[in-house]
Amino acid sequence: MLKKIFAVLLCLTLSISLCGCGYEYFNPELEASYTSDLAGTELNVYNWGEYISDGSDGCMDVNREFERITGIKVNYTTFESNETMYSQLDNGGVSYDIIIPSEYMIERLMSENMLEKIDISKLSNYKYVDTSYFNPDTTGLVEGYAIPYNVGMVGIIYNSALIDEPEHSWTALWDEKYRNMSLNFNNPRDGFMTAQMIKGYSVNSTNLAEWNDACELLKSGKDVLQSYVMDEIYGKLETGEAAIGPYYAGDYLVMQEVNPDLKFFYPEEGTNIFIDAICIPKCVKNYEAALLYINFLLEPEIALANAEYIGYASPHTAVINNPDYCYYQNEILYPKKEDMPKVEYYRNIPEEVRMHYENLWLDLKLY
Amino acid sequence: MKTLSRIYIALILLFLYAPVAVMIVFSFNSGGSVWVFEGFSLDWYKGLATNSSMLTALQHTLIVAVLSAIISTVMGTAASVGILALRKKFTRRAVMSATNIPMMNADIVTGVSLMLLFVFVGSLFGLKESLGFFTVLAAHITFNLPYVILSVLPRLRATDMSLNEAALDLGCTPVKAFFKVILPSISTSIFTGAIMAFTLSLDDFVISYFTCGHYQTLPIVIYNMTKKTVSPDVYALSTIIFLAVFVLLILYNTLQSKADLRRGIRA
Amino acid sequence: MNKKSFGSRIVAAPYIVWAAIFIIVPLVIVAYFAFTDANGAFALSNFAQIGKYKKAFGLSILYAVIATIITLFIAYPMAYFMTKLKISNQRMIMMLIMLPMWMNFLIRTYSWITILANTGLINKFLTWIGIGQVQLINTPGAVILGMVYDFIPYMILPIYTAMSKIDNSLLEAASDLGSNSWSRIRRVIMPLSLPGVISGITMVFVPSVSTFYISQKLGGNKDMLIGDAIEYLFNTGSQYYNVASTLSLILMVLILVCTLIMNRFSDDEEAVVL
Which CATH number fits domain B52-231: 3.90.550.10, 1.10.3720.10, 3.90.930.12, 1.20.1730.10? Predict the structure, then answer.
């Protein structure tokens, strides 16, 4: 009940403070610390889409700043799911120096010996890293192999101008009322999560029958859905093309700046919490530049620019303790302990279970 | 009947140009959406000049298109000459069949098969990275070649042999005879082949998608952009490309009609 | 020196080597993957999994066939009417048909979303005149429309070329012998434009049956076509390369069979020989 009240309050009290980003240029003394003999080399960065401050709307263009200061050329490419990222690393077609996957994928990459150790002694900004995220029981992240970049939780976004406030449950995505108006995730792990939460299963279940069951539930809702989406959800919700869909809390904050009718809640059944972290894969070609880039991302000014642009919760201690940070103590990103929804991290699960759900996802699409 | 046919043609053209019109209109949108038109502005065009990822991709596209068109035209023309010289019918048929494969086959199959090849060779040599500029270039040359060959070969077959023989009898070396006699008579079809190759390379998405690695061409960047919210800058760039091609085609067309007119007078 | 040719066959050598490496070998690799398991051992297990993709194959073929038929019915009169125009107008229309093909097909497809969406132009208009919203996007119809739109020039061009090659004297002879315009079309134009129709059908069918972008953007990602399945598998990890290769191989054979069947209807010498 408390959760319900919390969720309602959350929707009502949400302050519509726009997150503008007039930023000051990088401090010149610091710039000096980034000069190195690496100028002229290239750095291949592989990140999620919409996951770095890129210079639009007058924000800082982090990659351009890095290039300007260090003289290192950044080849920045994006992926839309952990699985796509994995397949690119896996086949050896392309090499990357920096990747930013989620915790369960990091665990998998570690178990397959695909990550390089990060020399944290060379990161002068490592002091800002919140080391409580290195926890074998929750995130599974291992210190020295991953640097937390963003934290977030999944919730449901709906358009209050088009539909009344739904029950705070994942079942809203199955509701006949929203036929052709609702969306769901277009990647297996998140997609299954929505069904697993309804069924009360662990998102890391090793019981194949539970996955089958979740898949049956997804199949039963497929007909109601408008489409399976990833970042296309921005346009669809902002314009009113779709009325309801699950996505990451931080993205909601960005969307509601465009369309203030959008509202958000964490479903009662619980939800997924995730942490995306910076890693260096084994195929790294420019290790020193990669360290420089990581340190640059950890610079308080850069981390702040990114946190304000991306809108996700930050694991950077200098950012979350900065009262000027536009999402400082934001109720959605940083819920108080008593308001915190029930959450579960994804973990790397045994290969046969993984292949089982990857195939089930195909079944869902081929059904 | 005549009016009916005109209306029909007009309707089809309307169908073909509706999305193009949408694209052009929304490239002038002052808002950031390709769904809701908020007002007129040129901001997206101004923004293009500083959009480094798109400009780099455009540069990559042009480099690959020019190089692959040149290489495939030279190699394809030589191949056409050589194929005609093949005496065994079986060999000729075999070569022609192989030539037809990339043209008939689905792009996605060509793309994945080339990717598997590149990745396989890369792993043989223990490379950290097997895809990039050279693989996308090789892929484009591969799918361009059939178009060049099928453009040049028929023309070559129809060319009068006696001129060539005359040149040889008069003491020309075979190479010189080729450049002096044959080449001028097949130059139009070589040119057509080259233009086709250039266009195909410029527009290719599927095969580049599987083979380009970090060397992303414009269609790949556009593809990645359509995975998120598309902002009107992609439309602005496409509008510019569209207008450039439009002007070129008009120019080509007027030149052609003038040439026709002259030919008509002579005949 | 062989008097019948313009040069030596040696000049074809670079191409033949190239074709062997970049055309033949990749297909051999696809076949190798298709017949092996993830450990590289010979296996037919990939083919056992194919049943799952029945619907994807079925939908791909169904959509592609419908799209090809619609394209043919739209393009054929178009080509015919074009040949009736003045030469200079013919050339201009030709140019107008080619022009959109120079724009990236991803953008052309994407623009349709703006037109077909629930909040798109057509629905805004329908709402305004009081009919109300109609579901257009994310339907099979939208996917087929995307195919028709993207590939219709490939149908118009060959048919038009074949028709414009028809000797006018044949038509005159037909009218002298008492044919009316309909029987002229049926007895003279249709048979003589057949090669164009055949190549048009192949050129529309092949990209339609294997597409993976149109269905994702206009179909709402809900039902996979075979191209989508291949793309998904190649993007999920190398342990799926074998199944993905099997699907590619089947798709290739399917296309090959279709092309061969189509070629039986055509006695065009330039037609694909395999």
Answer: 1.10.3720.10
